Amino acid sequence: MANKLSIGRLLVYAALALVALYYLLPLYVMLTTSFKTLDDIRQGNLLSLPHAWDGGAWAKAWASACTGIECGGMKGFFWNSVKMTVPAVLISTMIGAVNGYVVSMWRFKGSDALFTLLLVGCFIPFQVVLLPMAQLLGWLGLANTTAGLVLVHVIYGTAFTTLFFRNFYVTVPDELVKAGRIDGAGFWTIFFRILLPVSGPIFVVCVIWQFTQIWNDFLFGVVFAAGEAQPITVALNNLVNTSTGVKEYNVDMASAIIAALPTLFVYMVAGRYFVRGLTAGAVKG
Amino acid sequence: MTSQTLTSAAPVRPSSAESSLQRSRQRTAWLLVAPALVVLLAIAGWPLLRTIWFSLTNAQLGDLTQLQFVGLDNYIGENGVLRDAAWWSAVANTLRFSVISVTLETLLGLGVALLLNTPSRVRTLLRAAVLVPWAIPTIVSAKMWSWMLNDQYGVINVLLQSLGLIDHPLAFIADPDLTFFTIILVDVWKTTPFMALLMLAALQMVPSDCYEAARVDGVPRLRVFSHITLPLILPAVLVAMVFRALDALRVFDLIYVMTSNSRLTKSMSVYVREQLVDFQQVGFGSASATVLFLVIVLFTAGYMAFTRRRMQGV
Protein backbone atom coordinates (compact mmCIF):
# COMPACT_ATOMS: atom_id res chain seq x y z
CA MET A 1 0.00 0.00 0.00
CA ALA A 2 2.83 2.33 0.81
CA ASN A 3 4.28 1.76 -2.63
CA LYS A 4 1.12 2.66 -4.48
CA LEU A 5 1.74 5.77 -6.47
CA SER A 6 -1.64 7.39 -6.13
CA ILE A 7 -2.44 10.82 -7.48
CA GLY A 8 -2.63 12.14 -3.95
CA ARG A 9 0.85 10.93 -3.22
CA LEU A 10 2.17 12.50 -6.41
CA LEU A 11 0.58 15.78 -5.44
CA VAL A 12 2.22 15.62 -2.03
CA TYR A 13 5.61 15.01 -3.63
CA ALA A 14 5.07 17.84 -6.09
CA ALA A 15 4.18 20.17 -3.24
CA LEU A 16 7.23 19.04 -1.30
CA ALA A 17 9.49 19.62 -4.27
CA LEU A 18 8.06 23.10 -4.71
CA VAL A 19 8.57 23.94 -1.05
CA ALA A 20 12.12 22.62 -1.19
CA LEU A 21 12.79 24.76 -4.26
CA TYR A 22 11.25 27.80 -2.57
CA TYR A 23 13.59 27.35 0.37
CA LEU A 24 16.78 26.20 -1.26
CA LEU A 25 16.91 28.28 -4.42
CA PRO A 26 17.80 31.59 -2.74
CA LEU A 27 20.56 29.98 -0.70
CA TYR A 28 21.89 28.16 -3.74
CA VAL A 29 21.95 31.27 -5.92
CA MET A 30 23.63 33.31 -3.22
CA LEU A 31 26.32 30.75 -2.55
CA THR A 32 27.17 29.96 -6.19
CA THR A 33 27.13 33.60 -7.28
CA SER A 34 29.55 34.53 -4.53
CA PHE A 35 32.10 32.11 -6.02
CA LYS A 36 31.76 33.34 -9.59
CA THR A 37 33.85 35.95 -11.34
CA LEU A 38 32.06 38.96 -12.79
CA ASP A 39 32.60 37.62 -16.33
CA ASP A 40 31.13 34.34 -15.30
CA ILE A 41 28.04 36.10 -13.94
CA ARG A 42 27.58 38.14 -17.10
CA GLN A 43 27.95 35.24 -19.49
CA GLY A 44 26.54 32.33 -17.64
CA ASN A 45 23.17 31.25 -16.46
CA LEU A 46 22.30 32.36 -12.94
CA LEU A 47 21.49 28.80 -12.01
CA SER A 48 24.67 27.24 -13.32
CA LEU A 49 27.61 26.38 -11.12
CA PRO A 50 30.67 28.61 -11.34
CA HIS A 51 33.03 27.72 -14.22
CA ALA A 52 35.91 27.94 -11.86
CA TRP A 53 35.33 28.41 -8.14
CA ASP A 54 36.81 31.79 -7.42
CA GLY A 55 37.33 33.18 -3.92
CA GLY A 56 38.15 36.68 -5.11
CA ALA A 57 34.74 38.09 -4.27
CA TRP A 58 35.05 36.77 -0.74
CA ALA A 59 38.46 38.34 -0.24
CA LYS A 60 37.18 41.63 -1.57
CA ALA A 61 34.01 41.50 0.53
CA TRP A 62 36.04 40.88 3.66
CA ALA A 63 38.87 43.34 3.17
CA SER A 64 38.38 45.94 0.45
CA ALA A 65 34.77 46.37 -0.69
CA CYS A 66 33.40 49.91 -0.51
CA THR A 67 30.57 50.82 1.84
CA GLY A 68 29.81 54.40 0.97
CA ILE A 69 33.10 56.24 0.93
CA GLU A 70 35.04 53.79 3.08
CA CYS A 71 36.71 50.90 1.30
CA GLY A 72 37.80 48.54 4.05
CA GLY A 73 35.45 45.67 3.36
CA MET A 74 33.20 44.07 5.94
CA LYS A 75 35.84 42.99 8.41
CA GLY A 76 35.73 46.07 10.66
CA PHE A 77 31.96 46.00 10.80
CA PHE A 78 31.99 42.28 11.43
CA TRP A 79 34.06 42.83 14.56
CA ASN A 80 31.82 45.75 15.53
CA SER A 81 28.91 43.35 15.49
CA VAL A 82 30.83 40.81 17.54
CA LYS A 83 31.79 43.47 20.09
CA MET A 84 28.18 44.56 20.29
CA THR A 85 26.47 41.16 20.29
CA VAL A 86 28.56 39.13 22.71
CA PRO A 87 28.37 41.49 25.72
CA ALA A 88 24.74 42.38 25.03
CA VAL A 89 23.73 38.72 24.86
CA LEU A 90 25.62 37.78 28.02
CA ILE A 91 24.44 40.74 30.08
CA SER A 92 20.80 40.54 29.03
CA THR A 93 20.73 36.79 29.64
CA MET A 94 22.18 37.12 33.11
CA ILE A 95 19.87 39.95 34.07
CA GLY A 96 16.99 37.93 32.64
CA ALA A 97 17.91 34.92 34.76
CA VAL A 98 17.89 36.91 38.00
CA ASN A 99 14.76 38.85 37.03
CA GLY A 100 12.97 35.70 36.00
CA TYR A 101 13.85 34.09 39.30
CA VAL A 102 12.59 37.01 41.34
CA VAL A 103 9.42 37.38 39.29
CA SER A 104 8.65 33.67 39.47
CA MET A 105 8.89 33.87 43.26
CA TRP A 106 6.69 36.88 43.34
CA ARG A 107 3.15 36.14 44.40
CA PHE A 108 0.85 39.03 44.14
CA LYS A 109 -2.35 40.02 42.50
CA GLY A 110 -0.84 42.25 39.86
CA SER A 111 1.25 39.53 38.26
CA ASP A 112 -0.98 39.73 35.20
CA ALA A 113 -0.19 43.40 34.87
CA LEU A 114 3.51 42.68 35.15
CA PHE A 115 3.19 40.00 32.54
CA THR A 116 1.41 42.37 30.17
CA LEU A 117 4.14 44.92 30.76
CA LEU A 118 6.78 42.35 29.86
CA LEU A 119 4.94 41.38 26.70
CA VAL A 120 4.62 45.00 25.66
CA GLY A 121 8.33 45.36 26.36
CA CYS A 122 9.00 42.41 24.08
CA PHE A 123 6.98 43.72 21.19
CA ILE A 124 7.34 47.46 21.49
CA PRO A 125 7.99 48.92 18.04
CA PHE A 126 11.40 50.50 18.40
CA GLN A 127 10.41 53.53 16.36
CA VAL A 128 8.44 54.59 19.40
CA VAL A 129 11.55 55.15 21.52
CA LEU A 130 14.02 55.98 18.78
CA LEU A 131 14.46 59.70 19.18
CA PRO A 132 14.50 60.09 22.97
CA MET A 133 16.83 57.09 23.14
CA ALA A 134 19.21 58.83 20.75
CA GLN A 135 19.12 61.89 23.01
CA LEU A 136 19.71 59.76 26.09
CA LEU A 137 22.71 58.09 24.48
CA GLY A 138 24.01 61.53 23.57
CA TRP A 139 23.77 62.74 27.16
CA LEU A 140 25.51 59.60 28.39
CA GLY A 141 28.28 60.19 25.87
CA LEU A 142 27.45 56.92 24.16
CA ALA A 143 26.13 58.23 20.85
CA ASN A 144 27.60 56.40 17.87
CA THR A 145 29.48 53.92 20.02
CA THR A 146 29.30 50.17 20.34
CA ALA A 147 28.79 50.57 24.10
CA GLY A 148 25.66 52.58 23.39
CA LEU A 149 24.29 49.83 21.18
CA VAL A 150 25.06 47.26 23.86
CA LEU A 151 23.12 49.33 26.39
CA VAL A 152 20.09 49.68 24.13
CA HIS A 153 20.05 45.99 23.25
CA VAL A 154 20.39 44.97 26.90
CA ILE A 155 17.48 47.18 27.87
CA TYR A 156 15.12 46.02 25.19
CA GLY A 157 16.33 42.43 25.26
CA THR A 158 15.74 42.02 28.96
CA ALA A 159 11.96 41.83 28.54
CA PHE A 160 12.35 38.69 26.48
CA THR A 161 14.97 37.04 28.66
CA THR A 162 12.98 37.79 31.82
CA LEU A 163 9.92 36.24 30.25
CA PHE A 164 11.85 33.14 29.18
CA PHE A 165 13.39 32.56 32.59
CA ARG A 166 10.22 33.32 34.49
CA ASN A 167 8.23 30.81 32.49
CA PHE A 168 10.96 28.26 32.91
CA TYR A 169 11.35 28.71 36.67
CA VAL A 170 7.62 28.53 37.19
CA THR A 171 7.76 24.99 35.83
CA VAL A 172 10.56 23.87 38.16
CA PRO A 173 8.93 21.56 40.72
CA ASP A 174 8.16 23.38 43.93
CA GLU A 175 9.57 20.51 45.99
CA LEU A 176 13.08 21.33 44.83
CA VAL A 177 12.89 24.84 46.15
CA LYS A 178 11.10 23.77 49.33
CA ALA A 179 13.69 21.11 50.07
CA GLY A 180 16.35 23.76 49.69
CA ARG A 181 14.56 26.06 52.09
CA ILE A 182 14.23 23.34 54.69
CA ASP A 183 17.96 22.80 54.43
CA GLY A 184 18.42 26.46 55.18
CA ALA A 185 19.31 27.70 51.73
CA GLY A 186 18.84 31.44 51.26
CA PHE A 187 17.52 33.36 48.31
CA TRP A 188 20.80 33.34 46.40
CA THR A 189 21.83 29.84 47.42
CA ILE A 190 18.57 28.54 46.00
CA PHE A 191 19.24 30.44 42.80
CA PHE A 192 22.83 29.39 42.33
CA ARG A 193 22.72 25.87 43.75
CA ILE A 194 19.26 24.66 42.79
CA LEU A 195 17.87 26.65 39.89
CA LEU A 196 20.93 27.53 37.82
CA PRO A 197 22.10 23.92 37.50
CA VAL A 198 18.78 22.94 35.89
CA SER A 199 18.62 26.07 33.72
CA GLY A 200 20.75 24.74 30.88
CA PRO A 201 17.97 24.41 28.32
CA ILE A 202 16.56 27.85 28.91
CA PHE A 203 20.02 29.42 28.80
CA VAL A 204 20.51 27.94 25.37
CA VAL A 205 17.13 29.20 24.18
CA CYS A 206 17.87 32.64 25.56
CA VAL A 207 21.36 32.93 24.16
CA ILE A 208 20.30 31.79 20.70
CA TRP A 209 17.27 34.04 20.70
CA GLN A 210 19.19 37.07 21.86
CA PHE A 211 22.10 36.41 19.54
CA THR A 212 19.77 36.23 16.55
CA GLN A 213 17.84 39.34 17.54
CA ILE A 214 20.86 41.47 18.32
CA TRP A 215 23.16 40.37 15.53
CA ASN A 216 20.38 40.73 12.98
CA ASP A 217 19.15 44.09 14.22
CA PHE A 218 19.12 46.82 11.64
CA LEU A 219 17.10 49.73 13.01
CA PHE A 220 19.09 50.43 16.19
CA GLY A 221 22.31 50.07 14.25
CA VAL A 222 21.29 52.47 11.53
CA VAL A 223 20.03 55.10 13.95
CA PHE A 224 22.40 54.90 16.91
CA ALA A 225 25.70 54.06 15.25
CA ALA A 226 26.78 56.12 12.30
CA GLY A 227 30.22 55.60 10.78
CA GLU A 228 32.86 53.78 12.77
CA ALA A 229 30.69 51.78 15.12
CA GLN A 230 28.22 50.49 12.53
CA PRO A 231 27.20 46.88 12.89
CA ILE A 232 27.51 44.62 9.89
CA THR A 233 23.83 44.69 8.91
CA VAL A 234 24.01 48.44 8.34
CA ALA A 235 27.32 48.15 6.52
CA LEU A 236 25.86 45.50 4.26
CA ASN A 237 22.98 47.76 3.35
CA ASN A 238 25.44 50.55 2.52
CA LEU A 239 27.63 48.23 0.52
CA VAL A 240 24.76 46.97 -1.57
CA ASN A 241 23.37 50.46 -2.10
CA THR A 242 26.73 51.96 -3.05
CA SER A 243 26.10 52.88 -6.65
CA THR A 244 29.53 53.93 -7.86
CA GLY A 245 31.21 51.75 -10.47
CA VAL A 246 30.20 48.34 -11.67
CA LYS A 247 27.66 46.40 -9.67
CA GLU A 248 29.56 43.45 -8.24
CA TYR A 249 26.96 40.90 -7.42
CA ASN A 250 29.51 38.33 -6.37
CA VAL A 251 30.92 40.71 -3.74
CA ASP A 252 27.41 41.64 -2.57
CA MET A 253 26.46 38.02 -2.15
CA ALA A 254 29.70 37.13 -0.37
CA SER A 255 29.18 40.05 2.02
CA ALA A 256 25.61 38.96 2.68
CA ILE A 257 26.78 35.47 3.53
CA ILE A 258 29.50 36.86 5.79
CA ALA A 259 26.83 38.87 7.60
CA ALA A 260 24.71 35.76 8.06
CA LEU A 261 27.48 33.33 9.04
CA PRO A 262 27.68 33.93 12.80
CA THR A 263 23.98 33.26 13.42
CA LEU A 264 24.14 30.22 11.17
CA PHE A 265 27.15 29.04 13.12
CA VAL A 266 25.32 29.48 16.42
CA TYR A 267 22.41 27.45 15.08
CA MET A 268 24.66 24.70 13.81
CA VAL A 269 26.44 24.38 17.12
CA ALA A 270 23.48 24.82 19.42
CA GLY A 271 20.41 24.29 17.21
CA ARG A 272 19.78 20.82 18.56
CA TYR A 273 19.73 22.12 22.11
CA PHE A 274 17.48 24.95 21.02
CA VAL A 275 14.76 22.54 19.95
CA ARG A 276 15.33 20.48 23.06
CA GLY A 277 15.16 23.58 25.26
CA LEU A 278 11.91 24.65 23.67
CA THR A 279 10.45 21.22 24.26
CA ALA A 280 11.83 21.00 27.79
CA GLY A 281 10.11 24.23 28.72
CA ALA A 282 6.84 22.79 27.61
CA VAL A 283 7.24 19.24 28.92
CA LYS A 284 7.32 20.39 32.46
CA GLY A 285 4.26 22.59 32.08
CA MET B 1 8.44 29.56 21.71
CA THR B 2 6.21 26.85 22.95
CA SER B 3 3.26 27.86 25.00
CA GLN B 4 5.35 27.41 28.13
CA THR B 5 8.61 29.02 27.24
CA LEU B 6 7.17 32.13 25.74
CA THR B 7 3.91 32.87 27.36
CA SER B 8 1.49 31.61 29.93
CA ALA B 9 0.67 34.16 32.52
CA ALA B 10 -0.44 31.06 34.26
CA PRO B 11 0.80 29.32 37.31
CA VAL B 12 2.39 31.43 39.93
CA ARG B 13 3.96 29.34 42.62
CA PRO B 14 1.25 28.39 45.10
CA SER B 15 1.78 30.32 48.26
CA SER B 16 2.67 28.42 51.35
CA ALA B 17 2.98 29.58 54.89
CA GLU B 18 6.34 31.22 55.22
CA SER B 19 8.51 31.87 58.15
CA SER B 20 9.35 35.45 58.95
CA LEU B 21 12.97 34.54 58.32
CA GLN B 22 12.08 33.51 54.81
CA ARG B 23 10.22 36.72 54.29
CA SER B 24 13.05 38.86 55.53
CA ARG B 25 15.41 36.98 53.25
CA GLN B 26 13.17 37.70 50.33
CA ARG B 27 13.06 41.32 51.30
CA THR B 28 16.84 41.43 51.28
CA ALA B 29 16.86 39.85 47.87
CA TRP B 30 14.41 42.44 46.69
CA LEU B 31 16.57 45.22 47.99
CA LEU B 32 19.40 43.79 45.95
CA VAL B 33 17.44 43.38 42.75
CA ALA B 34 15.18 46.41 42.93
CA PRO B 35 17.73 49.11 42.10
CA ALA B 36 18.76 47.31 38.93
CA LEU B 37 15.12 46.91 37.96
CA VAL B 38 14.35 50.54 38.61
CA VAL B 39 17.28 51.73 36.52
CA LEU B 40 16.27 49.38 33.74
CA LEU B 41 12.66 50.49 33.82
CA ALA B 42 13.71 54.11 33.89
CA ILE B 43 15.97 53.78 30.86
CA ALA B 44 13.36 51.77 29.02
CA GLY B 45 10.37 53.82 30.10
CA TRP B 46 11.74 57.33 29.91
CA PRO B 47 12.03 57.43 26.11
CA LEU B 48 8.45 56.23 25.88
CA LEU B 49 7.18 59.02 28.11
CA ARG B 50 9.28 61.51 26.24
CA THR B 51 7.82 60.39 22.93
CA ILE B 52 4.34 60.87 24.34
CA TRP B 53 5.33 64.35 25.51
CA PHE B 54 6.78 65.21 22.09
CA SER B 55 3.55 64.08 20.51
CA LEU B 56 1.78 66.92 22.29
CA THR B 57 4.14 69.54 20.89
CA ASN B 58 5.15 70.91 17.50
CA ALA B 59 8.81 69.86 17.86
CA GLN B 60 11.04 69.64 14.79
CA LEU B 61 14.18 67.55 14.53
CA GLY B 62 16.35 70.56 13.65
CA ASP B 63 15.95 72.21 17.04
CA LEU B 64 14.31 70.25 19.79
CA THR B 65 14.46 73.09 22.28
CA GLN B 66 12.07 75.27 20.28
CA LEU B 67 8.74 73.65 20.86
CA GLN B 68 5.26 74.63 21.84
CA PHE B 69 2.57 72.65 23.52
CA VAL B 70 -0.19 72.02 21.01
CA GLY B 71 -2.40 69.58 22.89
CA LEU B 72 -3.95 66.87 20.78
CA ASP B 73 -3.46 68.74 17.50
CA ASN B 74 -1.05 66.13 16.20
CA TYR B 75 -3.68 63.47 16.75
CA ILE B 76 -7.05 64.93 15.90
CA GLY B 77 -6.20 68.41 14.63
CA GLU B 78 -6.77 69.40 11.03
CA ASN B 79 -3.49 67.82 9.99
CA GLY B 80 -3.49 65.24 12.76
CA VAL B 81 -2.30 61.72 12.20
CA LEU B 82 -5.78 60.28 12.66
CA ARG B 83 -6.97 62.41 9.76
CA ASP B 84 -4.07 61.51 7.51
CA ALA B 85 -5.09 59.17 4.70
CA ALA B 86 -1.48 57.97 4.41
CA TRP B 87 -1.55 56.84 8.03
CA TRP B 88 -4.73 54.85 7.51
CA SER B 89 -3.29 53.30 4.40
CA ALA B 90 -0.26 52.28 6.49
CA VAL B 91 -2.60 50.80 9.08
CA ALA B 92 -4.47 48.90 6.38
CA ASN B 93 -1.19 47.67 4.87
CA THR B 94 0.07 46.49 8.24
CA LEU B 95 -3.16 44.69 9.10
CA ARG B 96 -3.35 43.08 5.68
CA PHE B 97 0.28 42.05 5.95
CA SER B 98 -0.19 40.62 9.45
CA VAL B 99 -3.34 38.67 8.70
CA ILE B 100 -2.15 37.17 5.41
CA SER B 101 1.40 36.39 6.45
CA VAL B 102 0.49 34.92 9.85
CA THR B 103 -2.23 32.77 8.27
CA LEU B 104 0.07 31.44 5.58
CA GLU B 105 2.92 30.89 8.03
CA THR B 106 0.65 28.98 10.38
CA LEU B 107 -0.73 26.68 7.69
CA LEU B 108 2.61 26.07 6.02
CA GLY B 109 4.36 25.76 9.36
CA LEU B 110 1.87 23.16 10.50
CA GLY B 111 2.46 21.21 7.31
CA VAL B 112 6.21 21.28 7.73
CA ALA B 113 5.89 20.36 11.41
CA LEU B 114 3.73 17.35 10.56
CA LEU B 115 6.30 16.24 8.00
CA LEU B 116 9.15 16.64 10.45
CA ASN B 117 7.21 14.81 13.13
CA THR B 118 7.24 11.52 11.25
CA PRO B 119 10.21 9.62 12.61
CA SER B 120 13.18 9.31 10.27
CA ARG B 121 16.91 9.49 10.36
CA VAL B 122 17.15 12.75 8.46
CA ARG B 123 14.69 14.43 10.79
CA THR B 124 17.27 15.58 13.31
CA LEU B 125 19.33 17.11 10.55
CA LEU B 126 16.28 18.68 8.93
CA ARG B 127 15.18 20.21 12.20
CA ALA B 128 18.39 22.17 12.44
CA ALA B 129 18.55 22.96 8.71
CA VAL B 130 15.00 24.20 8.57
CA LEU B 131 15.92 27.13 10.80
CA VAL B 132 18.42 28.58 8.35
CA PRO B 133 16.04 31.14 6.82
CA TRP B 134 15.06 32.31 10.26
CA ALA B 135 18.66 32.70 11.37
CA ILE B 136 19.65 34.84 8.41
CA PRO B 137 19.38 38.58 9.13
CA THR B 138 16.20 40.08 7.65
CA ILE B 139 18.27 42.56 5.75
CA VAL B 140 20.17 39.75 4.06
CA SER B 141 17.05 37.85 3.07
CA ALA B 142 15.39 41.04 1.88
CA LYS B 143 18.39 41.84 -0.32
CA MET B 144 18.67 38.28 -1.51
CA TRP B 145 15.06 38.17 -2.64
CA SER B 146 15.34 41.60 -4.22
CA TRP B 147 18.14 40.26 -6.39
CA MET B 148 16.25 37.13 -7.26
CA LEU B 149 13.07 38.96 -8.11
CA ASN B 150 14.70 41.71 -10.14
CA ASP B 151 12.89 42.22 -13.43
CA GLN B 152 16.02 42.47 -15.56
CA TYR B 153 18.34 39.75 -14.41
CA GLY B 154 16.46 38.07 -11.54
CA VAL B 155 16.61 34.31 -11.47
CA ILE B 156 12.87 33.94 -10.81
CA ASN B 157 11.98 35.72 -14.03
CA VAL B 158 14.54 33.70 -15.96
CA LEU B 159 13.10 30.53 -14.49
CA LEU B 160 9.47 31.41 -15.13
CA GLN B 161 10.27 32.49 -18.67
CA SER B 162 12.18 29.36 -19.52
CA LEU B 163 9.27 27.32 -18.20
CA GLY B 164 7.00 29.31 -20.48
CA LEU B 165 4.80 30.49 -17.63
CA ILE B 166 5.26 34.17 -18.45
CA ASP B 167 6.27 35.83 -21.73
CA HIS B 168 7.79 39.01 -20.33
CA PRO B 169 9.64 39.64 -17.07
CA LEU B 170 7.53 40.69 -14.10
CA ALA B 171 8.50 43.70 -12.00
CA PHE B 172 7.88 42.02 -8.67
CA ILE B 173 9.03 44.94 -6.59
CA ALA B 174 7.90 47.91 -8.67
CA ASP B 175 4.59 46.63 -10.02
CA PRO B 176 1.76 47.84 -7.74
CA ASP B 177 -0.13 44.59 -8.21
CA LEU B 178 2.81 42.43 -7.23
CA THR B 179 4.81 44.29 -4.63
CA PHE B 180 2.58 43.38 -1.69
CA PHE B 181 2.56 39.76 -2.74
CA THR B 182 6.36 39.88 -2.93
CA ILE B 183 6.69 41.17 0.63
CA ILE B 184 4.43 38.39 1.88
CA LEU B 185 6.40 35.82 -0.09
CA VAL B 186 9.65 36.83 1.58
CA ASP B 187 8.18 37.05 5.06
CA VAL B 188 6.65 33.60 4.68
CA TRP B 189 10.01 32.29 3.50
CA LYS B 190 11.73 33.73 6.51
CA THR B 191 9.30 32.99 9.30
CA THR B 192 7.56 29.72 8.42
CA PRO B 193 10.49 27.64 9.73
CA PHE B 194 10.22 29.23 13.13
CA MET B 195 6.47 28.60 13.26
CA ALA B 196 7.10 25.04 12.15
CA LEU B 197 9.53 24.55 15.00
CA LEU B 198 7.09 25.85 17.60
CA MET B 199 4.42 23.53 16.28
CA LEU B 200 6.81 20.63 16.13
CA ALA B 201 7.52 21.13 19.81
CA ALA B 202 3.76 21.00 20.42
CA LEU B 203 3.31 17.93 18.25
CA GLN B 204 5.93 16.06 20.20
CA MET B 205 3.94 16.63 23.35
CA VAL B 206 0.99 14.63 22.07
CA PRO B 207 1.11 11.34 24.00
CA SER B 208 1.77 8.44 21.65
CA ASP B 209 -0.90 6.24 23.30
CA CYS B 210 -3.53 8.55 21.80
CA TYR B 211 -2.28 7.59 18.37
CA GLU B 212 -1.98 3.93 19.26
CA ALA B 213 -5.55 3.79 20.53
CA ALA B 214 -6.74 5.42 17.34
CA ARG B 215 -4.79 2.95 15.25
CA VAL B 216 -6.21 -0.01 17.11
CA ASP B 217 -9.68 1.38 16.46
CA GLY B 218 -8.82 1.87 12.81
CA VAL B 219 -9.55 5.59 12.78
CA PRO B 220 -8.68 7.15 9.41
CA ARG B 221 -5.64 9.43 9.30
CA LEU B 222 -7.54 12.59 8.58
CA ARG B 223 -9.85 12.03 11.53
CA VAL B 224 -6.92 11.32 13.80
CA PHE B 225 -5.57 14.69 12.82
CA SER B 226 -8.80 16.62 13.22
CA HIS B 227 -9.99 14.88 16.38
CA ILE B 228 -6.80 14.14 18.27
CA THR B 229 -3.81 16.09 17.04
CA LEU B 230 -5.40 19.42 16.28
CA PRO B 231 -7.32 19.89 19.54
CA LEU B 232 -4.24 18.94 21.54
CA ILE B 233 -1.86 21.31 19.80
CA LEU B 234 -4.34 24.14 19.32
CA PRO B 235 -3.32 26.13 22.42
CA ALA B 236 0.33 26.12 21.36
CA VAL B 237 -0.63 27.05 17.80
CA LEU B 238 -2.69 29.98 19.06
CA VAL B 239 0.16 31.22 21.22
CA ALA B 240 2.55 31.00 18.29
CA MET B 241 0.08 32.91 16.13
CA VAL B 242 -0.35 35.68 18.67
CA PHE B 243 3.39 36.11 19.01
CA ARG B 244 3.87 36.18 15.29
CA ALA B 245 1.03 38.67 14.96
CA LEU B 246 2.58 40.97 17.58
CA ASP B 247 5.83 40.81 15.68
CA ALA B 248 4.12 41.36 12.33
CA LEU B 249 2.31 44.46 13.56
CA ARG B 250 5.63 46.21 14.03
CA VAL B 251 7.17 44.96 10.77
CA PHE B 252 9.91 47.29 9.58
CA ASP B 253 13.19 45.89 8.21
CA LEU B 254 11.74 43.79 5.46
CA ILE B 255 9.45 46.44 4.01
CA TYR B 256 11.92 49.26 4.46
CA VAL B 257 14.76 47.41 2.75
CA MET B 258 12.71 45.97 -0.10
CA THR B 259 10.42 48.82 -1.02
CA SER B 260 11.68 51.75 1.04
CA ASN B 261 8.92 54.33 1.56
CA SER B 262 6.61 53.11 -1.20
CA ARG B 263 3.06 53.96 -0.26
CA LEU B 264 1.83 50.63 -1.57
CA THR B 265 3.52 48.64 1.15
CA LYS B 266 4.32 51.19 3.83
CA SER B 267 3.68 49.74 7.28
CA MET B 268 2.94 51.70 10.45
CA SER B 269 6.55 51.43 11.62
CA VAL B 270 7.88 52.62 8.27
CA TYR B 271 5.44 55.52 8.34
CA VAL B 272 6.60 56.54 11.82
CA ARG B 273 10.27 56.42 10.84
CA GLU B 274 9.59 58.47 7.72
CA GLN B 275 7.84 61.19 9.70
CA LEU B 276 10.48 61.29 12.42
CA VAL B 277 13.64 61.01 10.38
CA ASP B 278 12.93 61.93 6.75
CA PHE B 279 10.37 64.68 7.36
CA GLN B 280 11.88 65.67 10.72
CA GLN B 281 8.39 66.15 12.16
CA VAL B 282 9.12 65.10 15.72
CA GLY B 283 5.77 66.21 17.12
CA PHE B 284 3.66 64.62 14.44
CA GLY B 285 5.92 61.58 14.17
CA SER B 286 5.75 61.05 17.92
CA ALA B 287 1.97 61.19 17.74
CA SER B 288 1.94 58.44 15.14
CA ALA B 289 4.48 56.49 17.20
CA THR B 290 2.21 56.78 20.22
CA VAL B 291 -0.76 55.54 18.24
CA LEU B 292 1.34 52.61 17.02
CA PHE B 293 2.35 51.89 20.60
CA LEU B 294 -1.30 51.95 21.71
CA VAL B 295 -2.20 49.49 18.97
CA ILE B 296 0.40 47.06 20.32
CA VAL B 297 -0.74 47.61 23.92
CA LEU B 298 -4.38 47.05 22.97
CA PHE B 299 -3.53 43.88 21.13
CA THR B 300 -1.47 42.57 24.05
CA ALA B 301 -4.14 43.45 26.59
CA GLY B 302 -6.75 41.77 24.43
CA TYR B 303 -4.63 38.66 24.29
CA MET B 304 -4.18 38.69 28.06
CA ALA B 305 -7.90 39.08 28.65
CA PHE B 306 -8.55 36.25 26.24
CA THR B 307 -6.14 33.81 27.91
CA ARG B 308 -7.42 34.71 31.36
CA ARG B 309 -11.00 34.02 30.33
CA ARG B 310 -10.02 30.78 28.73
CA MET B 311 -8.14 29.65 31.79
CA GLN B 312 -11.07 30.45 34.02
CA GLY B 313 -13.44 28.69 31.65
CA VAL B 314 -11.51 25.45 31.64
Automatic annotation (TrEMBL), chain A:
Keywords: Membrane, Transmembrane, Transmembrane helix, Transport. It comes from Pseudogulbenkiania ferrooxidans 2002. The chain crosses the membrane at residues 12-31, 84-102, 114-134, 146-169, 190-211, 253-275. Belongs to the binding-protein-dependent transport system permease family. GO terms for biological process: transmembrane transport. The keyword Protein transport does not apply. GO terms for cellular component: plasma membrane. It is found in: Cell membrane. CDD domains: TM_PBP2. Gene3D superfamilies: MetI-like (1.10.3720.10). PANTHER family: ABC TRANSPORTER PERMEASE PROTEIN, GLUCOSE IMPORT SYSTEM PERMEASE PROTEIN GLCU. This is Binding-protein-dependent transport systems inner membrane component. InterPro entries: MetI-like, MetI-like_sf. Residues 78-270 form the ABC transmembrane type-1 domain. It is a multi-pass membrane protein. Pfam families: BPD_transp_1 (PF00528).
UniProtKB/TrEMBL annotation, chain B:
The keyword Membrane applies. The chain crosses the membrane at residues 29-49, 97-116, 128-148, 178-203, 224-246, 282-306. Residues 1-20 are annotated as: Disordered. The keyword Transit peptide does not apply. Residues 91-305 form the ABC transmembrane type-1 domain. It is found in: Cell membrane. Pfam families: BPD_transp_1. It is a multi-pass membrane protein. GO terms for cellular component: plasma membrane. It comes from the Bacteria. InterPro entries: MetI-like, MetI-like_sf. Its main location: membrane. Belongs to the binding-protein-dependent transport system permease family. This is Binding-protein-dependent transport systems inner membrane component.
